[in-house]
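Protein record

Derive tokens from sequence
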Amino acid sequence: TDNNGGTTTWEVEYGVTGFTQGAGTTISPATNPQNVPGLSPNTTYDYYVRADCGSGSFSNWVGPFTLTTPCNALGVPFSGV
């Protein structure tokens, strides 16, 4: 969403790609940027965003947007199996 209206907080709903909106995990209020702990490595997620307009009102949802988390980093040295 854009910030033309001066919005500083949002609501974000996310889940593994293909989740049904309304059944995902919600972050409210969310800020920009927003850290999301606990995501699985090398996993694709969809997320939706809407502006928190205050007084219990929100903009329409936009999305889904998609992101993929990176693989786990390996320590050096490591040994293969």
Observations:
- The longest strand covers residues 44-54.
- Strands lie at 10-16, 25-30, 44-54, 57-58, 62-68.
- The chain is about 0% helix and 40% strand.
